[in-house]
Amino acid sequence: MFEEIYGDGVQSAKNCAGTHIHFQKGSVIDQLNLLTALDPALALLNSSPYYCSEAGDSSSRARAYRTKCGQEFQQFCELWPYAGSLQEWTDRVDQAYNHFKHLASSRGVSAAKVDELFEAENTVLNPVRLRRCQPTVEWRAPDAALPSEVIQLAVDVGELVSQTGEKPLAHGHHGVYSDRIGVPEFPSLRELSQEAIHSGLESTAVVTYLRKMGFDPSEYDPIAPEFSGPPVLGELSARKIRLQQASKLRQDIKAIAV
Question: How many domains are there within the chain?
Answer without folding.
Answer: 1
